[in-house]
């Protein structure tokens, strides 16, 4: 069984991004990412700190706007309008989740598609679904595709099962696997026979957000298992959506949690940001 090491692949991706950032700097362009965080969600604070540290490592200038939880939607939209107009800002990211009184969709839609570091804008989502290249793609599924490539797993002709239909992972993941010629099934909480679907999958991507929902015994012998889940148990332990040990005993390759897809999500944000910066000088 091959353990697909997200930390190792992320380090390689960061090295590539650092080279691109230096090349842009030599042309007078300093790549910049602006992160907007609203409220005091402790996990978001940690993730944003991590993203800023990543930026520093590869030479991207990062700026954080940390707004109080009471920020109104109008105030947030006004900030995004200012960032859209600022030529020093190549990428904009609004950390999710947002406080409940803010309409998340309206905020994501307000980010210019040309500065959409997360790839969540409807224009970029639409571009992915019809195969337009050169636009930012959601970081988590893009990271999964890079992991498959690094592990020399070609999705072409394989049965791929994506468990979870979120806008930021499940749906774009299905589109990316389809683009690479997999036969894709998208399962979710109301799928009738999840065990049966998992048992037929050559490539399984679990992104449903329920601790160890996918049992190792369901996994097809030799399958490639990608676990996007990050679930904190009562004892503080972090586990994925797949029963790791039992799945690893049947899989040909598997990602760990932590140290799998999470670091790749962060690395692909850097890729999106430098690609957006490159588009300003082409
Ligand atoms: N605007 C966005 N908001 C959110 C996104 C996103 O892609 N864009 N995704 C998640 C959170 N997230 C990035 O923002 C993220 C979460 C976790 C990790 C990670 O590296 N996890 C580690 C484990 C960390 C731990 O111990 O708690 C790992 O898997 O090894 C990266 C990115 C929601 N919001």
TrEMBL record:
Protein name per its UniProtKB record: Bifunctional protein FolD
Family: Belongs to the tetrahydrofolate dehydrogenase/cyclohydrolase family.
Reaction catalysis annotation: (6R)-5,10-methenyltetrahydrofolate + H2O = (6R)-10-formyltetrahydrofolate + H(+); (6R)-5,10-methylene-5,6,7,8-tetrahydrofolate + NADP(+) = (6R)-5,10-methenyltetrahydrofolate + NADPH
InterPro entries membership: Aminoacid_DH-like_N_sf, NAD(P)-bd_dom_sf, THF_DH/CycHdrlase, THF_DH/CycHdrlase_cat_dom, THF_DH/CycHdrlase_CS, THF_DH/CycHdrlase_NAD-bd_dom
Gene3D superfamilies on file: Leucine Dehydrogenase, chain A, domain 1, NAD(P)-binding Rossmann-like Domain
Keyword annotations: Amino-acid biosynthesis, Histidine biosynthesis, Hydrolase, Methionine biosynthesis, Multifunctional enzyme, NADP, One-carbon metabolism, Oxidoreductase, Purine biosynthesis
Signal peptide: none
SUPFAM superfamilies membership: Aminoacid dehydrogenase-like, N-terminal domain, NAD(P)-binding Rossmann-fold domains
Ranges where the Tetrahydrofolate dehydrogenase/cyclohydrolase NAD(P)-binding domain occurs: 138-279
Species assigned in the record: Anaeromyxobacter dehalogenans (strain ATCC BAA-258 / DSM 21875 / 2CP-1)
Annotated pathway: One-carbon metabolism; tetrahydrofolate interconversion
Function (record text): Catalyzes the oxidation of 5,10-methylenetetrahydrofolate to 5,10-methenyltetrahydrofolate and then the hydrolysis of 5,10-methenyltetrahydrofolate to 10-formyltetrahydrofolate.
């Amino acid at each position: 069984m091959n353990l697909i090491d997200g930390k190792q692949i992320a380090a390689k991706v960061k090295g590539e991004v650092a080279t691109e950032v230096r090349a842009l700097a030599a042309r007078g362009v300093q790549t910049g990412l602006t992160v907007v965080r609203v409220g005091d969600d402790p996990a978001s604070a940690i993730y944003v700190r991590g993203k800023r540290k990543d930026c520093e490592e590869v030479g991207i200038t990062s700026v954080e706007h940390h707004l109080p939880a009471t920020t109104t939607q109008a105030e947030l939209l006004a900030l995004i309008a200012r960032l859209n107009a600022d030529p020093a800002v190549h990428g904009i990211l609004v950390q999710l989740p947002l406080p409940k009184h803010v309409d998340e969709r309206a905020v994501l839609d307000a980010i210019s598609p040309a500065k959409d570091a997360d790839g969540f804008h409807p224009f970029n989502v639409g571009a992915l679904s019809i195969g337009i290249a050169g636009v930012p793609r959601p970081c988590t599924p893009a990271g999964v595709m890079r992991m498959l490539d690094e592990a020399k797993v070609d999705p072409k002709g394989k049965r791929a099962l994506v468990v979870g239909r979120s806008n930021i992972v499940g749906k774009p993941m299905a589109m990316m696997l389809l683009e690479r010629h997999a036969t894709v099934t998208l399962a979710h909480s109301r799928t009738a026979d999840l065990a049966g679907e998992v048992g037929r999958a050559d490539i399984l991507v679990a992104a449903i957000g329920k601790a160890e929902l996918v049992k190792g015994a369901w996994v097809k012998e030799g399958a490639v298992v990608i676990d996007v889940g990050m679930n904190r148990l009562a004892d503080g332990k972090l586990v994925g959506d797949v029963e790791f040990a039992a799945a690893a005993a049947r899989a040909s390759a598997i990602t760990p949690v932590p140290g799998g897809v999470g670091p790749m999500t962060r690395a692909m944000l850097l890729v999106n940001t430098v690609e957006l910066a490159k588009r300003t000088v082409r």
